[in-house]
Amino acid sequence: MKVDAEAIARAKAEREERKKRLASAKRDVIQIDPQAAETGATSGLKNNIISENEVELSWSTNDEMGNLGFIVQRRRGGSVDFVDVASYETLPSLKSKGPQGGTYKYLDDGVDVGNYFYRIVDCDASGSKSALCQQLVEIESGDEKTQTLVVGAFIALVAVGLVVTGSLLDPIQTTDITGRSF
User: What is the pTM of this model?
Assistant: First the structure.
C-alpha cells in the first residue's frame, strides 16, 4: 500500500483552514438545531397574540457589540421563504440599543388566522447577518378557541367520570358500602 504524503498534508491543511473559518465565523443559532428553533425550544423570542390580526413579538439581548439592528422576518406555515416584515433601517425601535444590548418589541398587524414562523435577524457593522431567534405562532379564530374549550371541558368530564367509576368498582376494596369488612 502506497501512502501519498502530499495528499495527507493537503487534507490536513484544508481541515485546519476549515476549523479556523468556523471558529472565526459568527455562529447562527438557527443552523445548530433548526427544528427546535422553529418551535421555540432554543428561542429567546416571545409572542403575544393580541387579536386575529395582531401579534406582538419581544426579545432581549445581552451583547450587541458591532450590531446595527434587527430585521423581523415572517413566513406562513407551509411556505419555504421568509419575507422581511420590518427592518432597523426603516423602524427606529429595531436599531441597536448599544453594546450592552436591550429589550425589543415589534407589533405585526399584517397577519390573519393561521400558522406563522417569525425570525429575528441580527445585522452587524461588517455587513453579516445571522438569525438570532425564531418562533412558531399559531393564531386561532374565535370559533377555534371556543371549540378547543368545549373539547377540553368534555375530556375533563370524561376523566372525572372514569375516576369516580373506577373508585366505586374497585375490586380490591376491603369494606362494603356500609363500612363492614369482608
Answer: 0.60
